[in-house]
UniProtKB/TrEMBL annotation:
This is DUF883 domain-containing protein. The lineage of its organism: Bacteria, Pseudomonadati, Pseudomonadota, Betaproteobacteria, Burkholderiales. Pfam families: DUF883_C. It comes from Pelistega suis. Residues 6-33 form a coiled coil. InterPro entries: DUF883_C, YqjD/ElaB. Residues 74-103 form the DUF883 domain. One of its GO terms (molecular function) is ribosome binding.
Length: 103
């Protein structure tokens, strides 16, 4: 699952890079072109940026859903194992205190 997550993030970043590069090229062409051609190129750039926004929105929805699932799983575990949770948090706090105390 972690490997798939990295692949998805890499794909999303690559898509973003390519879209921004395409938009920059279109805007550069628009600055050199006449009014009619410039309007057409600006429209294409807006469409590309809208595509990126849509990709981020769908990615955001997936992240929010995964966070909700993780929160529910954590809540269930803590409800079923309160003393284990207290022990684990205590050990983590002790280790953190030791690490901070050494500095």
């Amino acid at each position: 699952m972690a490997n798939r997550k990295m692949t998805t993030e890499e794909e999303l970043l690559e898509h973003l890079r390519k879209t921004v590069q395409d938009a920059e090229e279109l805007l550069a062409q628009a600055s050199k072109a006449g009014n009619e051609k410039a309007d057409e190129l600006r429209s294409k750039a807006k469409d590309l940026l809208a595509s990126v926004q849509q990709s981020f929105d769908s990615g955001k929805e997936q992240v929010v859903e995964k966070a909700r699932e993780a929160a529910k799983a954590t809540d269930t575990y803590v409800s079923e194992n309160p003393w284990r949770t207290v022990g684990a948090v205590s050990v983590a706090a002790l280790l953190l205190g030791i690490i901070i105390g050494r500095k």
